[in-house]
Amino acid sequence: MTQMTMRRLLPMFAALSASSVALAAELPVNDYPTVARADYVFACMQVNGQTREVLDKCSCSIDQIAAVLPWAEYEEAETIMSMSLKGGESVSWALNPGISIKVTNLKRAQVEGELRCF
Predict the structure, then answer these.
(1) Burial class of 84 by CB neighbour count within 10 A (0 to 12, 13 to 18, 19+)
(2) In terms of residue numbers, what domain contains 51?
(3) Is residue 42 part of a domain?
């Protein structure tokens, strides 16, 4: 490459780099692992039907949940909910207000996803 060509390309690369940084600043934080998003969409489609429209709605729903609830909180609440399904005395800890608020926050995020996407 000649020096003249390099001089012409340099401003173009600088502009592309600046626009990439601006675009990255606009995107929401994606701290949910892809497999967790896929698992949610798969389960959502099992319940709501396996059509392209439902795929779009379920994908939208997990995106809304992720916008409201950080991954760590989502994972913790999902774990609490799955453990509490066992029932009996072994899950009496789930009645603790500090723990139940985590589940409540997840349920609110899920409702937000349903309202916006379905």
Answers:
(1) middle
(2) 29-117
(3) yes
Residue 9 lies in a domain: no
Task: Evaluate whether residue 102 is within a structural domain.
Answer: yes
| Domains contained in the chain, number | 1
Please give the DSSP secondary-structure letter assigned to residue 29.
Answer: P
C-alpha dihedral over 23, 62, 102, 100, to 10 degrees?
160
Eight-state DSSP code of residue 49: -
**What's the CA gap between 61 and 57, in Å, rounded?**
6
| pLDDT tens sequence across 29-78 | 679 999 999 999 999 999 999 999 999 999 999 999 999 999 999 999 99
pTM: 0.70
